[in-house]
């Protein structure tokens, strides 16, 4: 890409290409227009630049998409598993409770902030439900809560009422390019309470607002168009319920592994790397190819992505759009 001679606006697109989470010709055109505005180009020049945009830029976008997908295992994201004793020592970490707000209100780890996926998703204009908010909106929300991109963060849930939302929160931080270490409380609130750790219903003090800088990591997400283009080069794993969801329709070529298989024991602790590898191999998953987890809208599959990431196995991706997005353009198969 560096060898291609480009206009100023084209160079901006190339430099910002890593921030494209859904890379399609239409998305490239939209990003080109927005970045032209951001660069201070006049309205007349913007209009002319938009009209003169060539397919070379579209091909660059698509090529960048393929490169980013291939680079998925190289993502720099500091994710660590913590037991209650280790978590209790993280005095400087921001604590995020990923359960529904009503659960947080009834009792949470002292100092924990409520951060439920339900408050950070929306229905898009095309009717697709539970889509994650745009990165800039998430950054504003995190900054308003006093969370910086360099902060250490401890995330927990219950792998129950949260529908795996704790995994979605960790995945979201990875997608935003969080630079500080992210700790995941193994066994969630159940293990914390079983270890006789303190709980409170006190909302606590507000943190001073700060700036959260985004350095988007599109390699942990995938679009419907990318799945179409790479369907022979990826594994698709459906993490939804078997009878009420999988049997009624799924993505072509997918195998089924319900998200409940990714935790174990009464505290719902994450399974080991060996257990995960066995699960995947028993389903015929080729671990030399990226594993794309999906559910209805990326929540439960966010949890399975988390477990995969913790295992150290290569190539985990969360299809955030899920069957909600897929079914807008393609029928689900049986």
What can you tell me about this protein's structure?
It is a single chain. This protein has 334 residues and is of the alpha/beta class. It has 3 domains: 8-70, no CATH class; 79-214, Oxidized Rhodanese, domain 1 (3-Layer(aba) Sandwich); 219-329, Oxidized Rhodanese, domain 1. 37% of the residues lie in helices and 12% in strands. It is built from 13 helices and 13 strands. The protein has helices at residues 8-15, 25-38, 43-51, 55-70, 84-88, 101-106, 135-144, 165-176, 188-194, 224-230, 273-282, 300-311, 322-329; strands at 79-82, 94-97, 113-114, 121-122, 131-132, 153-156, 182-185, 235-238, 255-256, 263-264, 269-270, 291-294, 316-318. The strands form 4 sheets. It has a 5-stranded parallel beta sheet. A 4-stranded parallel beta sheet has the order 9-8-12-13. The chain has a two-stranded antiparallel ribbon with strand order 4-5. Helix 1 packs across helix 2 (25-38), helix 2 runs antiparallel to helix 3 and helix 8 packs across helix 12 (300-311). The protein is globular. Residues 1-74 have low confidence and may be disordered.
Give the topology, please:
Layout: H1 8-15, H2 25-38, H3 43-51, H4 55-70, E1 79-82, H5 84-88, E2 94-97, H6 101-106, E3 113-114, E4 121-122, E5 131-132, H7 135-144, E6 153-156, H8 165-176, E7 182-185, H9 188-194, H10 224-230, E8 235-238, E9 255-256, E10 263-264, E11 269-270, H11 273-282, E12 291-294, H12 300-311, E13 316-318, H13 322-329
Helix pairs in contact: 1-2, 2-3, 8-12
């Amino acid at each position: 890409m560096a060898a291609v001679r480009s206009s100023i606006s084209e160079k901006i697109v190339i430099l910002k290409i890593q921030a494209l989470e859904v890379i399609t010709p239409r998305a490239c055109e939209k990003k080109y227009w927005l970045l032209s505005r951001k660069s201070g180009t006049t309205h007349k020049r913007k209009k002319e630049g938009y009209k003169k945009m060539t397919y070379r830029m579209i091909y660059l976008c698509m090529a960048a998409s393929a490169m980013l997908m291939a680079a998925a295992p190289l993502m720099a994201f500091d994710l660590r598993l913590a037991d209650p004793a280790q978590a209790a020592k993280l005095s400087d970490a921001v604590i995020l409770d990923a359960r529904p707000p009503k659960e947080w209100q009834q009792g949470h780890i002292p100092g924990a902030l409520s951060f439920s996926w339900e408050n950070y998703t929306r229905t898009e204009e095309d009717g697709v439900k539970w889509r994650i908010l745009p990165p800039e909106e998430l950054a504003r929300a995190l900054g308003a809560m006093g969370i910086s991109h360099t902060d250490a963060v401890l995330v927990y849930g219950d792998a129950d009422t949260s529908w795996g939302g704790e995994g979605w929160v960790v995945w979201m931080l990875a997608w935003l390019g969080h630079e500080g270490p992210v700790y995941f409380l193994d066994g969630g609130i159940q293990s914390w309470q079983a270890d006789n750790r303190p709980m409170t219903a006190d909302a606590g003090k507000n943190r001073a607002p700060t700036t959260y800088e985004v350095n988007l990591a599109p390699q942990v997400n995938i679009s419907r168009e990318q799945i179409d283009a790479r369907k022979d080069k990826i594994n698709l794993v459906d993490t939804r319920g078997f009878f009420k969801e999988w049997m009624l329709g799924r993505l072509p070529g997918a195998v089924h592994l319900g998200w409940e298989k990714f935790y174990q024991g009464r505290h719902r602790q994450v399974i080991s790397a060996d257990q995960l590898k066995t699960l995947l191999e028993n389903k015929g998953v080729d671990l030399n190819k990226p594993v794309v987890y999906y559910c209805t809208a990326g929540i439960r599959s966010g949890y399975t992505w988390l477990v995969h990431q913790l295992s150290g196995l290569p190539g985990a991706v969360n299809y955030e759009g899920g069957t909600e997005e897929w079914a807008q353009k393609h029928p689900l198969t049986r």
